[in-house]
Amino acid sequence: EVQLVQSGAEVKKPGESLKISCKGSGYSFSSYWIVWVRQMPGKGLEWMGIIYPGDPDPRYSPSFQGQVTISADRSISTAYLQWSSLKASDTAIYFCARVAAANWYFDLWGRGTLVTVSS
Amino acid sequence: EIVMTQSPATLSVSPGERVTLSCRASQSVSRTLAWYQQRPGQAPRLLIYGASTRATGVPARFIGSGSGTEFTLTISSLQSEDFAVYYCQQYSNWPPGTFGQGTKLEIK
User: Helix, strand or coil for residue A79?
Assistant: First the structure.
């Protein structure tokens, strides 16, 4: 089955670090871009950044540049999203999605990881 | 950056009705427009790409149209599972993932 499996929900305190994951299976993970999308409580979808598993340089939306780090390990078909110092405003669901080949829409989505940041 | 504007924000409709959702781009995106459906508690799901091409497994009652700056998604006969939030997304210009703010379909 073609799927993206995301890591489980996290509860963190402000200032803590966090790394969440997105593992692809059933397709050639190295051949597709992966995007991370944020959805704050009750809000819409925001594109955060993208990475090509074979390329060490992710690209970030200006709104998220410097706020998060995106990486990937193609040897285990996994992409990551990490924070060095969480804020309460990072509380959201984070989705990873596969970018369709040769186009920039998102054709396969993970189920999302809920990140709650609270003191 | 291209801004995507969806209208209305909320639409109250009855099962079986035909409904049309609108999406407008701040500048032309040709036909590089996708639609997604997000049911409560679920991840978004690709419905339409290329403005009018249905993704695999999407029922024929979902019809996308438009080009340039004006796009619509029509659901020809609403089923109970169609009550959800719908997002449009342009993928013409960088950044490629500009979404509209969404239209919520609720049961009247």
Answer: strand
CB contact under 8 A, A45 and B99: yes
| Chain A residues near residue B95 by CB distance under 8 angstroms | 47, 61-62
**Chain B nearest C-alpha distance from A32 (Å):** 15
User: Helices then strands (H, E): number in chain B?
Assistant: 0, 11
Instruction: Copy the structure tokens of residue B35.
Output: 């639609």
Q: Is the pLDDT of residue A33 over 80?
A: yes
Angle at A92 between CA B80 and CA A71, to 5 degrees: 115
Q: Compute chain B's Rg from CA coordinates.
A: 13
pLDDT tens-digit readout, B16-25: 999 999 999 9
Q: Does A40 touch chain B (CB under 8 A)?
A: no
Q: Which of A95, A116, A105, A98 is nearest to A45 (CA)?
A: A95
Question: B87, A61: Cβ pair inside 8 Å?
Answer: no
DSSP state of A104: S
CA distance A19 to A80: 7
Q: Which two tokens stand for residue A11?
A: 């509860």
Rounded Cα gap, residues B45 and B58, in angstroms: 10
Nearest to B91 among A37, A105, A108 (CB): A105
Determine, for residues B87 and A95 on separate chains, whether the beta-carbon distance falls below 8 Å: no
Write the residue in A97, A100, A110 that is nearest to B49 by C-beta: A100
Q: Where residue B95 falls among pLDDT bands split at 50, 70, 90?
A: low
For residue B1, the model assigns a pLDDT of 83
